[in-house]
User: Which sequence fits this backbone?
């Protein structure tokens, strides 16, 4: 229910909390009576435990988003690569890719404003893939620059091809987001890309610990530009980050690994309940 509260105007947040009292009561009931709470991030697990009114137990566990480490059909990727070239992707440009729903939980304004600044310094393209309620707003915002491309939704071969052609994966979440370990970064990890993120907390700590990305403030064009400049002009750093990102996915965040851990956890919970 807090997601709904976050979307309402600040003066009305208190009223919305009252109106959503029934939902808060339901989530409290569910968490207090659950044998275990599973979550995709530490923040979400703590959120559930708060409503449960207890510390973490043996049946509570964290299973983050992952991404398949398996490759897409090379022939389909080759076809998709040509599709991107026909779409206007310049082979000699610095490419920043994004995949997601273009709505309230992403701040693409900062990205577009950064594109306008950096396009005056070197050849750069931001390929923002997806659709959503804010797409037309962002199209208009970017109408005075050719450094931003909106190709709409794309399929798996086109995602794989674009990541091969890209230098950076963007995770430009808005300030209001409650996610601390979303799925986008793992997709970029699979593509061997450094992640440029605007999320504090778990993701920021992960990127810093494994040195596979950088974090900027969601509303700071200056910070985002500085991060992208550094990655543009230091190819060894960028490539090393990408290698570490791919290795991190394979070792800890592949769908295969997470699914096996999840299955083992459920088996333990079942055996403990006998």
Assistant:
């Amino acid at each position: 229910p807090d997601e709904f509260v976050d979307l309402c105007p600040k003066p009305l947040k208190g009223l919305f909390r009252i109106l959503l009292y029934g939902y808060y009561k339901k989530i409290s009931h569910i968490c207090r009576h659950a044998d275990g709470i599973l979550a995709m991030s530490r923040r979400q697990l703590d959120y559930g435990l708060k409503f449960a009114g207890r510390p973490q137990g043996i049946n509570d566990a964290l299973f983050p988003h992952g991404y398949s480490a398996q490759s897409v059909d090379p022939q389909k990727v080759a076809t998709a690569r040509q599709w991107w070239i026909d779409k206007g992707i310049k082979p000699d440009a610095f490419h920043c890719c994004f995949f997601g729903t273009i709505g309230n939980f992403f701040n693409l304004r900062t990205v577009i404003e950064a594109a306008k600044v950096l396009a005056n310094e070197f050849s750069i393209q931001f390929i923002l893939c997806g659709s959503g309620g804010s797409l037309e707003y962002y199209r208009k915002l970017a109408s005075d620059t050719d450094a931003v491309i909106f190709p709409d939704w794309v399929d798996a071969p086109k995602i794989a091809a674009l990541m091969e052609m890209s230098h950076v994966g963007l995770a430009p979440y808005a300030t209001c987001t409650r996610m601390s370990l979303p799925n986008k970064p793992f997709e970029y990890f699979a593509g061997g890309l450094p992640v440029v993120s605007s999320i504090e907390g778990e993701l920021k700590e992960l990127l810093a610990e494994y040195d596979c990305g950088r974090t900027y403030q969601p509303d700071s064009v200056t910070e985002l530009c500085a991060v992208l400049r550094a990655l543009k002009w230091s190819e060894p750093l960028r490539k090393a980050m990408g290698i570490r990102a791919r290795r991190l996915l394979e070792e800890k965040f592949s769908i295969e690994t997470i699914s096996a851990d999840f299955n083992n956890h459920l088996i333990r919970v079942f055996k403990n309940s006998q």
Notes: The longest helix spans residues 235-253.
